């Protein structure tokens, strides 16, 4: 009887590469929908979240340049999304309807109809930009946690080999997948939840979880090369 084919466990850089844009688009969609259907103050709620996020980041005493960097990434995200694409120029042109040709008139009607959603998207883009900057600033923390986890995991693997311990391909492959899944979960929580969050309360637990999964992944690495 032929073996039943198993679904390969996908990991690696490409596993993350297409998930980050998907999560960012999902986050913007959630923010806009919440502003349109849930919050009475609409896009002003996202404006408040942005202001609270910036206040939390500027209050981080351990990183002096966190506030300016977050503000720069927020404005950069807005610039690339709405100014470099010419969307803001189109908005300014539509603010004076005189002389607008018929096709542009229909586009202008759509812009006017969805203007609250557009305003929410403008603030959402800035929120995603400043939160991306925070994750960028935590890369050294992830690097240190990875080095410690790899060192401890390699020592555990050596002890397992020295004492003839059993290896487990089942655990190894699923722990390896958990390493990347931890990163995806962090992105999901950090970007999509449309409330102001303390970076230390959100990111540090995922750093610990990431380090634990890396440690046991290395520990269960195959016995022989």
From TrEMBL:
The chain crosses the membrane at residues 12-39, 132-154, 175-195, 201-221. It comes from the Bacteria. InterPro entries: DtrJ-like. Keywords: Membrane, Transmembrane, Transmembrane helix. It holds the Pfam family DtrJ-like. This is Uncharacterized protein.
């Amino acid at each position: 009887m032929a073996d039943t084919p198993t679904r390969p466990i996908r990991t690696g850089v490409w596993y993350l590469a297409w998930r980050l844009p998907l999560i960012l688009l999902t986050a913007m969609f959630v923010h806009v929908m919440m502003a349109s259907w849930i919050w009475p103050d609409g896009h002003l709620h996202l404006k408040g979240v942005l202001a609270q996020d910036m206040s939390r980041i500027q209050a981080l005493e351990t990183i002096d340049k966190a506030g300016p960097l977050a503000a720069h990434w927020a404005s950069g995200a807005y610039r690339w999304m709405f100014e470099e694409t010419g969307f803001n120029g189109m908005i300014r042109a539509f603010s004076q309807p005189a002389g607008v040709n018929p096709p542009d008139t229909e586009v202008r009607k759509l812009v006017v109809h969805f203007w609250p959603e557009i305003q929410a998207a403008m603030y959402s883009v800035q929120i995603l930009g400043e939160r991306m900057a925070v994750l960028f600033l935590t890369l050294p923390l992830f690097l240190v946690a990875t080095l410690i986890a790899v060192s401890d995991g390699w020592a555990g693997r050596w002890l397992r080999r020295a004492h003839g311990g059993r290896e487990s391909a089942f655990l190894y492959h699923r722990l390896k997948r958990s390493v990347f899944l931890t990163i995806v979960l962090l992105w999901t929580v950090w970007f999509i939840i449309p409330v102001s969050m303390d970076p230390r309360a959100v990111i540090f637990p995922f750093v610990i979880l990431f380090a634990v999964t890396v440690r046991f992944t290395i520990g269960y690495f195959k016995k022989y090369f």
